[in-house]
Design brief:
Largest sheet: 5 strands, mixed
Number of strands: 16
Length: about 425
């Protein structure tokens, strides 16, 4: 959410005035419903035990809430957050002893949120995809959300291959005949279960594949009506989203806005636990994401929308969002899941960063049209870092490549 910049001299006067008046200082702190210092993606230290370090990180989050005047008086919020943290700890402790019981702990957490449409809704309406467009009760009256509602979603999938990829089937999930090779050694996957991974931009795919210099193939996936109605768990919650979401002075009569902020705060420990990052890939970091994945069928949820661990700052938010759709054996269509019926797919295209042909695209991706071209819809210009240089996403070759892929022929498989 955009916050107006206060001139430095005025800011200092206000802070001095508050600091020298205990009553105003208390009131200011009580109004400050922010969780600064609590990033969603946390990088661990390999010298420490991952489980202990994650538990320490979660405890510090709850301690911070308890010390902030804005939250400390809300006993229900503090208890809900602490309860969720304890359930995550139990899941970690049970995982290697009894995986079903470990899954039950995460199921207890999710059960608190599945009836709220901010957390579980259709892919085409999800906050992680379309922002506030379908949340009428949260709309800014000065913003027109119709373009965001009407624009087709565009998602991307990539592969690295040293031989030419030319068939749409090359860009699907691993077929079931190879499921014996699938192990739970990556984020949001269960042993023996293939999954279709998609992202909001080709740049997000590039990051997930380790920033390959060559042999980077990408296809565009456009969901049809059934695809847009897939039920997803929205795990796109960041520090900046929570900060400023509810202002007690401006939004005091907006109970829904306060309700969502409180739920995001208590849900945030699960976001932290699924976004814990180790530079050398400690496989323990995948435990909680796997358990979340195991819970989906209990709640008739088709997939998860989640933040890339490569998120550098919240201004990148919508450019680095991933989608994972698990494929179950009873949903088979030949070797692949029925999920293929829900998307039209372009043939894989080799990414050539020096090419000029991408800039001629006349059709824009959903992300580009809504978060770059449509300045009214977005209060910021999404930026990314390429070769240590920060660039506006809409001006990068990745954005032009996204648009170019949208113009290719799309078809169903099978």
């Amino acid at each position: 959410m955009w916050t107006p910049r206060i001139p430095e001299n005025l800011r200092k006067e206000v802070l001095d005035l508050i600091e020298n008046n205990p009553e105003r200082k208390y009131y200011s702190q009580r109004m400050d419903r922010n969780i600064n210092g609590c990033p969603s993606v946390t990088k661990g230290e390999n010298s420490k035990n991952m489980k202990e370090e994650l538990e320490e990180r979660l405890d510090k989050y709850c301690e911070k809430l308890g010390m902030d005047i804005a939250f400390s008086e809300d006993d229900e919020l503090i208890k809900e957050t602490q309860d969720n943290i304890e359930l995550i700890k139990k899941a970690l402790n049970l995982y290697h002893k009894d995986r079903d019981k470990a899954t039950d702990q995460i199921g207890i957490i999710l059960n608190k949120y599945v009836d709220d449409q901010f957390f579980v809704t259709e892919l085409g309406r999800c906050y992680g995809m379309r922002g506030m467009a379908y949340y009428d009760e949260l709309h800014d009256p000065t913003t027109d959300y119709e373009e965001s509602k009407d624009h087709p979603l565009t998602l991307y999938r990539a592969r690295i291959s040293n031989h030419k990829l030319c068939k749409r089937e090359d860009m699907l999930h691993r077929p079931f005949k190879k499921n014996e090779k699938i192990c739970a050694k990556q984020r949001f996957i269960c042993e023996g279960m293939p999954a279709l991974y998609l992202a909001t931009t080709s740049y997000a795919c590039w990051l997930e594949l380790g920033k390959p210099e060559n042999d980077f193939y990408v296809s565009s996936f456009i969901p049809n009506n059934k695809g847009e109605r897939l039920k997803v768990l929205n795990m796109v919650v960041t520090q900046d989203m929570i900060n400023g979401f509810y202002n007690e002075v401006m939004d005091k009569d907006d109970l829904r806005r306060k309700e969502i902020q409180n739920k995001m705060i208590s849900f945030f420990p699960l976001v932290i636990a699924t976004s814990f990052k180790y530079s050398e890939g400690n496989k323990e970091e995948y435990i909680i994401p796997e358990l979340v994945m195991r819970c989906l069928r209990r709640f008739n949820i088709d997939g998860i929308i989640y933040l890339s661990k490569n998120l550098e700052h919240d201004i990148q938010l919508h450019s680095v969002i991933n989608v994972v759709l698990p494929i179950y054996k009873d949903q088979l269509q030949d070797e692949y899941g029925k999920i293929t019926r829900f998307f039209k797919i372009s043939k894989p295209e080799l990414f050539m960063p020096q090419s000029n042909k991408y800039e001629t695209a006349r059709i824009g991706s959903f992300f580009n049209d809504n978060f770059h071209e449509n300045k009214q819809q977005s209060s910021y210009e999404p930026t990314i870092t390429i070769e240590d240089q920060e660039m506006i996403y809409g001006e990068t070759v990745f954005c032009h490549f996204d648009n170019y892929l949208c113009e290719l022929d799309h078809a169903y498989i099978g």
